[in-house]
Amino acid sequence: MANASSSPTVKALFEPFSGGGFELANRIVMAPMTRSFSPGGVPGPDVAAYYKRRAENGVGLIVTEGTVINHPAAAADRDVPHFYGEKALQGWAEVVKSVHEAGGRIIPQIWHVGMARNPATFPESDAVPIGPSGLNAAGERTGHELTESEIASLVEEYAKAAGEAKRIGFDGVELHGAHGYLIDQFFWAETNKRTDRYGGDLVERTRFAVEVIEAVRKAVGPGFPIVFRFSQWKPTDYQAKLARTPEELEKFLAPLAAAGVDVFHASTRRFWEPEFEGSELNLAGWTKKLTGKPTITVGSVGLDTEFTRLFSDGAGAGTENIDGLLERLGRHEFDLVAIGRALLADPAWAAKVRDGRDDELIPFKPEATRTLY
Questions:
Q1: How far is CA 32 from CA 128, 149, 276, in A?
Q2: Continuous H helices in the chain
Q3: From its phi and psi, is residue 260 left (phi > 0), alpha (psi between -120 and 50) or beta?
Q4: Per-residue confidence at 326, pLDDT binned at 50, 70, 90?
Q5: CA-wise closest residue to 188 among 205, 203, 204, 175
Q6: How far is CA 300 from CA 16, 224, 268, 305, 318, in A?
Q7: What is the C-alpha to C-alpha distance for residues 179 and 170, in angstroms, rounded to an integer?
Q8: Cβ–Cβ contacts within 10 Å for residue 142, how many?
Q9: Tell me: the pLDDT tens digits for 176-224?
Q10: 109-160: pLDDT as tens digits
């Protein structure tokens, strides 16, 4: 990787950011990455130390791994952290304390996997997957179609989790509306075949998300940042599109922004790819242009291999020059940059890039997912 300090635009990554309710030291965000190191759903001292190391090394904003709301079918993996219950919330309070002591800022990602839950992973549980139509990504009925009263209960649980995040000192909250999980299952026509007010066209399919956002805003009050993560792609279909044109994207985003989203986290697999023909803007760039809201870009930053290919051959990825990213940031295409696997493998990634110590960067290897560096 070339020395990033030689780039005339490297300063853009380390400029303070003020917007969307945040005051951040720089533009670097730790992307949410499922770790499953919280036995019984309770994050311990090792989890607190894991996040603190990133704050100590200059990450401006940490987004935690996905944390599940209080619902029996919310999780897809064992040992993912809960965001309910006294023990789990006390664990998260210690995480917040550790990050703040290091001068960092941190928000939890609030999550429900919906139809992505595999009952075989939980043989002791009779909780079946739930979704807007009980359909998996292949269109097969493998779960329970939610009733309107059940939807209302889920909305309430999202709001409760967000309220707890504010109570224990987090700096905001992110709602996971991407990657084929519950909220995204309402967005996607392939998994939402409802004929009531939660189904219909692209705009009508945002209703569940809108109700979640509005309930979260009511729970946390004004001024507490709400980040919303969304994606076009699904784990089962990398070519999936919620919106195929800028006009459709604008219609999709408008009700979410109006409901109370402060920052959009636009998830792509490759940040450098244009989202639509005729423009170099990526998804975060289009989202900022259409909504006027601050945006976070993400997608294989700092890697020489697309992150979704990292586990196919077990080889991992080398480090990659980020000058192209810096140029786009310098043009204000987006506001913040989320770093995933590169930061998972190397807690000091931000500090090394800042100080021009690129030859010290640690390449990502799949084994990095099996420990908390």
A1: 25, 30, 26
A2: 45-56, 86-101, 148-167, 182-187, 207-220, 246-259, 283-291, 323-330, 341-345, 349-355
A3: left
A4: very high
A5: 205
A6: 23, 29, 9, 7, 11
A7: 24
A8: 17
A9: 999 999 999 999 999 999 999 999 999 999 999 999 999 999 999 999 9
A10: 999 999 999 999 999 999 999 999 999 988 999 999 999 999 999 999 999 9
Dihedrals phi, psi of 141, to nearest 5 degrees: -85, 100
**How many Å apart are CA 12 and CA 240, to the nearest integer?**
32
Residue whose C-alpha is closest to residue 61's, from 362, 338, 343:
338
Q: Are 229 and 184 within 8 A, CB to CB?
A: no
Active site residue 50: no
- Vertex 290: Cα angle to 289 and 296 (nearest 5): 60
50, 158, 181, 198: which one is catalytic? Answer: 181
